User: Fold this.
Amino acid sequence: MIMAAKAQKATTSDDEKLAATVLKAADQLARELHPEVQRRGATTLDSRLDSDLGLDSLAMAELLSRLESICGLSVGDDALLAESPRELVQLVLARRGAAPARAKAVHYELPGAARGLPSEAETLPEVLDWHVQRHPERTHVYLYEDSETPVEISYGQLHRSAQTIAAGLRHEGLEPGQTIAIMLPTGRAYLDTFFGILMAGCVPVPIYPPARRSQIAEHLRRHAGILGNAAVRLLVTVHEAKLVGRMLAAQVPSLDKAVTPEDLAGRHLRDASVPRRPEDIAFLQYTSGSTGDPKGVVLTHANLLANIRGLGQRLQADSTDIFVSWLPLYHDMGLIGAWLATLYHGIPVALMSPLAFLAKPSRWLWALHRHGATLTASPNFGYERCLAKVSDSEIEGLDLSTMRFMLNGAEPVSPDTVARFNARFAHYGLRPNVLKPAYGLAETCVGLAISSPDRAVVIDRIERDAFAHNGRAIPAAADDPSPLLWPGCGTPLPGEQIRIVDEASVELPERREGRVEFKGPSATSGYYRNPEATRRLFRSDDWLDTGDRGYMAAGELFITGRDKDVIIRAGRNIYPYELEQAIGETPGIRNGCVAVFASRRTPAPESLVVVAETRETENETLDNLRQQILQKTIDLLAIPADEIILASPHTVLKTSSGKIRRNATRVLYERRILGHGRGVQTFAIAFDTLLAEARRTGRTVFKVGYSAWAWACFYLLATGVWLTTVLLPRLDWRWRALRVAGRLLGWFTGTALRVRGLHHIPATRPCVLVANHCSYLDSMALVTAIPRPFHYVVKRDVKGAFVSRLFLQRLGVHFVERFDLERSSEDARRLIGAAHEGQSLAFFPEGTFSRVSGLRPFRMGAFITAASAAVPLVPVSIRGTRSKLRAGQWWVRPGPVSLVILPPVEPDGSDWSAAIALKNSTRAAILKHCHEPDLATEA
Assistant:
C-alpha cells in the first residue's frame, strides 16, 4: 500500500511537472509571437490556445516540437487541434511511454507503366471510366490516415465507392446540375464524395473544414455567404456538423440538409451515373471570404482537362511517375494538381494529411523517399518549414535522388528559400533545378506558367532603382550590391497565353512591369452568380486580369507583386474586407478606418498586418483593444495577425470617396513612416504620385513613338510594293514581292507572325480560304504567312480611286457587290466559274470588322462558291491583329500575330444545304480557335 501510494504520488508529481512545462512553453511562445499584447493574468490550463494565446496551426506545430524536444515524449498529430493547455496535457499523457515516432525508410513496390491516356475523354467521370475499363486493380492512391502504413485505393475501388455516393444523392432527390458543398478533411471520404457528386451529374463546392470541432458552428455561419451564392442544396460533412447544417437553412434558403458520406453510401441504386458535357461545370472553386463578395470560379470539365493535359505535357509526366502530396484537397493545388492531374495521367499518388506535415515535416520527405517519388508540390512555406524544423538526425539515410520536379507555387516564391533548400538537400540526393517556382490561380484551374523539367531555374537580378522608378527590369551588374531578385515562374502552359499590360490595357514590351493578364482553354468563364465580379475579371477584351503584377523576359514570367487585396498565408487566400468590418465595430476603434494588408517587411513571405485608428491613449485600454483585435482575427480567419498597429486618427489612407487605400497604407508601413505626421505622409504620397505620372508619361511617349515608326515603315514599304506590283509581269512575282514586304514590315516593327497548320492548305488543288476579320492587318498577315497566291474577294466599296484599284487588280482581286441583288448574283456565278477554272479564292465571310472582340455572323458567298465548285474549304483563325490595330483608331501596338490554319472541309453536295453545312462547321472551327465571343446571337 505504501509503495502504491508513493508511486501514485510520484505519478501525480510528474503530471504536475508536465502541466507546468506545457504552460511555460505555451506562454513563452505566445509572448514571442505577440510581444505587443499585454495579457491580463497568467496563462492557465484552461486558457484558449487560439483566442487567449494567439496560437494558429503553425504556432501549435512549433509548440508540439518544443514539447517533444523538452519531454522526450511522442506527441500525436491530434494535439494540433487541442484547444487548451489542459487538453494538450491530457493528449500527451495518453501517449506516455511512446517514443517519438520515426518514419520508416521502407520502399513500396509501385505499379508498372499503364498504356495510353484518356485523350478522348471529355469529362472527369469519363477519365475514371477509362482507367476502370483498362486496369481497375491498378493502385491509384496511397492514403496515409492514422499510421505510417498507407491504405491502397485502386481505380476500381474509387469507382465503386463513388457510385454508392452517387446513388445516395439520387435517392436524396438531387438533380443534375445542382450544387453540393463538401466540408471534409483529406481522406477516403473526400475522394469518394467528390467523384460521387460528379457521377450524379451534380457540382461539387469544396470548402475548407474548421481547424477544431468546437469551431464548426461559427465556421459554417461564416461560410453562409458562399453556400448561399452557390445555391447549395446539400452539405456533405462530418457527423458533428450535421445539426449546424440544419440550422443554416434560415440563412441559406437553398440548403435542404447536411449529411455524412456514410449516410449517402448506405443507398444501393443501380447505375446512378449521369452523362455530362465538356461545357458543364465540373466544380466551383471559391477564392474569396465568407461574406461581402463571394467569388466562386466556374471551372468546366473542358477547362480542367485542358489544364491537366497542359500540365502533363509541360512536366513530361506519364504513368511511371509517382506523386506525393500533403496539400489539402479543398485547395486547388491539392485537388487539381496533386489528385485530378495524377488521376488523368495514371500516376500513383500518395496523399497525407496537412496536419501530419505541420506536426512533423520530415514525414513528407520520408514519404518521397519510401515511394521513390518523382513529383511533388508545396507552397513556399512548406519548403521553408522543412529547412527550419527538420533536423539532420531525423532524415539520416534519406534519398531524394528519384525526384525530378518539386513545384513551388500558390504563394510568393522566395529565391532565398529555393537556394537554401537546394543547398541543404543536395546532400540527400536532390539534383539541381528540381525545385522550380511556378505560377497559377484558381481562375485558370491551377497552373498557368511552369518550367519544363529540363529548363534551369532562373533567378533574375534586377537594378533596384530602375525598377522602383519606372518599372524597367534591367539586369543588374555582377557587382551590384543590392539587386532585386525575382524568381522565374516558367513559360505559359501549352495553349495558354500571358501578356503584361498598363492601366490602359496596352500591352507592354519585355522587361516592363505591369498587370498580368491571361487567356486560354483553361480560363474560367467567370464567377458563379456574380456578374459584377466577372466584369472586373475581364478588364480587356477576352483577357482575364490576374490581379498580379509582373514582367516577361525571354518568354518567362516573373511575378513582382499584387494589385488585388488578397493576402496569402501558408498557401491560403485571405481577403481583408470582412476583417476590417469586424474590427471597425470594436468599441474604441474608428469604424471605417481599419486597413488589413500583407507585408514583406517582416521575415515571413506574407505577414498579416492590421492598422486600426483609435483616439484612445491609455496603455491599458490600448492593450485591451489589441487583444480584442487578435481575438476577432482568429475568430474570422482561424489565424492571428502578425502585427497590430493602433494609430492616431487620419493615419489610414483613403480615396476621395472614402475607400481604404490598402496598398498606399502598406507602402508607408514598409517605409516605416506610417503615422509620422501628415507632412511626411503627404510628401511620400506626392512622391509616389509623381513617379506614377512619370511612368504614365513614358508609356505614352513610347506608344506614340512606336505607332509613328510603324506607320512610317508601312508607307515607305507600300510605295515600293505598289510600284513593284504594277511593273512586274507575272502574278506569282507580284505576290512574292508582297510577302517579302510583309516580312520586312514585321521585322521593322518587331511583330512576330506565328503560323500553325500550313500543311492543311492543298498543294495541288484549288480551294476556298475563309478567315475571321479583326483588323486592317488581316490581309497583310495572310499574304505574308501563306506561301502561295490567293485571289481575294473584297467588297466593291474598297475599289476606290485609281491608285488602289490598279494595285488590287494587279493582284487578281475579285470585287463583289453586297447590296445590289442582281449584281451580287452575277458576282457569285463569276466566282464559281473562277474556282472551276482552278483559282484559289480567299474570303472574309464576316464582311467587316469592329473594335469589339467577337466573331460576327458569316455571309454565304464563300460557302456557296465552295459547294458549287466542289472544292475544299480551308478555315483560318486570325488572332492578334485586333489588339495591334483596332477599328476606329490609328495607334499601332506592339504584339504578335498568330494564324491557325485548320484542316480543310470537303463539301457534301453542291446545293444550299451543303453550303449551310459548310458555313456552320467552318464557323464553329474558327470560333473554337479565335478565342473571341460569339456575336452571332447578338446580330
About this structure: The chain has a mean pLDDT of 83. DSSP finds 29 helices and 33 strands in the chain. The chain has five domains: 2-94, 153-294, 451-562, 570-676, 706-938.
